[in-house]
């Protein structure tokens, strides 16, 4: 991939700095203008200060307090062991132990067995339940699927309406060019702990002894000090399974923990970056990114990816095409996402649903790509945003289509914002009008244009508005004064609310659900046509414009307007 760079002044929507509310300042990244010999050029660029290395103080419990349901579940499993006189040690592994020690409830219970497969133990539980007159529920065996990063068979069952997964402890060896283990044996609890991704995820709760086992000797310590550390040497850990790099980023952001310095050096090394690109499926990378974007600290997660120099590994672009990107495009992407996240906090969580919030962050992150395209094998121009979603992250097609649609709507929305945010009636310029508006009264044209836009972007019009506000009336500028920065975001919030209220006042909420008053068959009858075609499509747009301009109009009135307009055209011709 050959990439050309634009300088900072050539992008009309260039975001020069992050204006953070209190939420933004807490993210741990500080954005400052680059110091350079050419001040004009430097004004357009950003420098990201490294994420804070000060570890948080975390309250960690000394022991795990079980809920009544957990006690009942574990008692039932121990009764199975006693019934068959087994020596099996039952250990709850990973995230459940971490979350319980942090005082959080967790319903994801994974149990590791030291001397048998999960399916074998589930059979034992089933037999025991039968001996007591009970019937096992939800039995399932999920086979191993290395291509989807699932290396062990997992047995599942429901106990007291809770899903429990059972797997065996294991030790693993990896090949050089794959994250699929070449050799996997029954392992000890200690071997299993050391093959985990992070020390905070390596602890066990031994059900037999009702105790927490910290077999790496680091789990408690790193949880208390808020550190993200690997049980073994980080480079060895990441080369064995490079997906662990992204998991480290995700957990670091989620809990507000600090990435270990040696871990950061290993993650940023060329060997690990190459391994991440070569050994990990794009589906798995996309899944991790989606969990970050949907999480509680999405900006912090992407900032870690940027800091570890993994941005272009994760959001890879087509290598065989020559692309022109804004200079320091990765920082610009992060800057837009940070600004969007900060603005979301000011606007309030109720403005957007979860799915809208998720895609709004993607739309902000990829906003610098919005005008960049490449040609596919058939010579068709494809937006780079589409490539990143479909190829780099392997996300669903609807995500790509929605974000591309939002970017397209932003460009048109920017021209409408001045009219929508003001309470003064102003006529649109002729350049803003399409052919479907020629016969529409000037006073109705704003409603018509806005209605057409909303009918295209549908439920995501507020997402488009959020992104447009970041570029209106100009990109966020540079300032060292925190209060001024906050004022700038407040002003953008005011614009968002003003435009939102104007759209609601125009009665355009859910306008995309309004059906056309006139059908294609009606149009063909008026025009005396035997079949449809471009002329029918043209009139469909004109009649929809009339309907938007006359929200109280009837089908008969719409058809009469069409007849009169059509007759005028014939006379003029």
UniProtKB/TrEMBL annotation:
Record-linked Pfam families: PolyA_pol
Classification via Gene3D superfamilies: Beta Polymerase, domain 2, cca-adding enzyme, domain 2
A single GO BP: tRNA 3'-terminal CCA addition
Keyword field: RNA-binding, Transferase
Poly A polymerase head domain: residues covered: 90-228
InterPro entries recorded: NT_sf, PolA_pol_head_dom
An example Gene Ontology CC term for this record: mitochondrion
Alphabetized GO MF terms: ATP:3'-cytidine-cytidine-tRNA adenylyltransferase activity; CC tRNA cytidylyltransferase activity; RNA binding
Family indicated by similarity: Belongs to the tRNA nucleotidyltransferase/poly(A) polymerase family.
Protein name: tRNA nucleotidyltransferase cca2
Organism of provenance: Rhodamnia argentea
Gene name in the database record: LOC115739516
């Amino acid at each position: 991939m050959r990439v050309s760079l634009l300088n900072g002044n050539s992008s009309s929507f260039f975001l020069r700095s992050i204006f953070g509310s209190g939420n933004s300042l807490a993210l741990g990244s500080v954005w400052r203008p680059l110091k350079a010999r050419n001040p004009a050029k430097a004004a357009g660029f950003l420098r990201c200060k490294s994420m804070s290395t000060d570890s948080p103080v975390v309250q960690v419990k000394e022991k795990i307090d079980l809920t009544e349901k957990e006690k009942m579940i574990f008692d039932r499993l121990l009764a199975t062991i006693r019934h068959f006189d087994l020596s099996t040690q039952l250990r709850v592994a990973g995230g459940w132990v971490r979350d319980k020690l942090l005082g959080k409830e967790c319903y994801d219970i994974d149990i590791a067995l030291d001397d048998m497969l999960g399916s074998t133990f589930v059979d034992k539980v089933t037999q025991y339940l039968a001996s007591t007159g009970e019937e096992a529920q939800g039995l399932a065996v999920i086979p191993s699927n290395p291509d989807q990063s699932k290396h062990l068979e997992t047995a599942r069952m429901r106990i007291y309406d809770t899903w429990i997964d059972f797997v065996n402890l294991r030790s693993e060896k990896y090949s050089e060019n794959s994250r699929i283990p070449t050799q996997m044996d029954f392992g000890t609890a200690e071997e299993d702990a050391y093959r985990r991704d992070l020390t905070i995820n390596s602890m066990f709760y031994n059900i037999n002894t009702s105790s927490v086992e910290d077999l790496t000797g680091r789990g408690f310590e790193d949880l208390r000090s808020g550190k993200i550390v690997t049980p073994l040497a980080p480079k060895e850990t990441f080369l064995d399974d490079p997906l662990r790099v992204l998991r480290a980023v995700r957990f670091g952001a989620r809990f507000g923990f600090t990435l270990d310095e040696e871990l950061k050096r290993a993650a940023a090394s060329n060997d690990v970056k190459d391994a991440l690109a070569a050994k990990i499926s794009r589906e798995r990378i996309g899944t991790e990114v989606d969990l970050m974007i949907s999480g509680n600290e999405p900006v912090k997660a992407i900032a870690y990816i940027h800091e570890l120099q993994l941005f272009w590994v994760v959001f890879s672009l087509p290598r065989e095409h020559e692309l022109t990107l804004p200079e320091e495009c990765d920082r610009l992407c992060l800057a837009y996402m940070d600004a969007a996240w900060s603005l979301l906090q000011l606007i309030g969580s109720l403005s957007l649903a979860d799915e809208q919030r998720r895609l709004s962050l993607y739309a902000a992150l990829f906003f610098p790509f919005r005008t960049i395209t490449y040609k596919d094998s058939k010579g068709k121009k494809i937006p780079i945003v589409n490539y990143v979603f479909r190829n780099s992250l392997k996300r669903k097609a609807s995500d790509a289509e929605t974000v591309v649609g939002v970017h397209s709507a932003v460009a048109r929305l920017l021209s409408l914002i001045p009219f929508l945010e003001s309470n003064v009636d102003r006529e649109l310029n002729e350049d803003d009008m399409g052919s479907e508006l020629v016969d529409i009264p000037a006073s109705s044209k704003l409603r018509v244009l806005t209605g057409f836009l909303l009918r295209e972007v549908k439920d995501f019009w507020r997402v488009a508005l959020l992104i447009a506000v970041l570029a209106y009336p100009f990109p966020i500028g540079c300032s060292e004064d925190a209060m001024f920065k906050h004022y700038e975001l407040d002003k953008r919030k005011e614009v968002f609310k003003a435009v939102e209220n104007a759209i609601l006042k125009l009665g355009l909420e859910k306008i995309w659900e309004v059906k056309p008053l006139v059908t294609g068959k009606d149009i063909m009858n008026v025009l005396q046509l035997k079949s449809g075609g471009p002329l029918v499509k043209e009139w469909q747009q004109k009649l929809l414009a009339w309907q938007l301009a006359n929200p109280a109009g009837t089908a008969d009135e719409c058809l009469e307007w069409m007849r009169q307009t059509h007759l005028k055209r014939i006379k003029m011709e």
